[in-house]
Structure formats: C-alpha cells, structure tokens
Specification:
With 101 residues, the protein is mainly α. It has one domain. It is built from two helices and no strands. Helix 1 packs antiparallel against helix 2 (31-91).
C-alpha cells in the first residue's frame, strides 16, 4: 500500500445541486436583489470549497497516518522476531521461562 497525495482541488468538483439551484434562482431575481444575493452566493461557494479543501487535507492526513501505523506495526513485529531469534541463540530454546523481559 503506497501513500499518494491527492492533487484534485475543490474547484475540480462540481457544486452541490442545492447551490446550483440557489444560483439559478438568484439569476431570475430583479437586478438590485440579484447583485446583493450574488455576493452572498459567491461567499457560500467560497465557504463550500474551503470546507471541501479542508476535508481533502484531513482525509490525506488520515491516509498517511494509517500508512505510517501500518509500517510501524511491521517494524515492531520484525523487531520482536529479531529479539526472539537472538534470545533463542543466547539462551537456547528450553530456558524461555527464566529469560529477562
């Protein structure tokens, strides 16, 4: 399992249907209200994309953490096997009950 960073950005993803519907409704409003609502709509889109970006960063960090934990477990098991092999060489297989640690 190899860790890869996602390179997609929030701008690559389509907007949710609800935001597209809101933009369609704003486009049908009279000009004075449309100007005010368009500003609010752009702010909603910015917030949505920022949250999506944060979510992507979080998912990438979680994926990397899982990857690192996997490798740490592998290293721990390898170290335990090496320890047990050295104990067997030093003390023989029959005296495991009196071994330190």
């Amino acid at each position: 399992m190899e860790y890869q960073v996602r390179i997609d950005t929030p701008e690559d993803h389509p907007l949710p249907v609800e935001i597209l519907e809101l933009q369609r409704l704003i486009d049908n409003c009279p000009a004075p209200q449309r100007a005010q609502l368009s500003i609010a709509s752009r702010n909603v889109v910015k917030c949505h994309r920022r949250r999506l970006h944060i979510l992507n960063l979080f998912q990438d960090a979680l994926s990397e953490l899982r990857h690192l934990v996997h490798h740490l477990r592998f290293d721990l098991e390898a170290t335990r096997r090496e320890r047990d092999a050295l104990r067997a060489l030093l003390y023989g297989d029959g005296d495991k009950d009196c071994l330190p640690g």
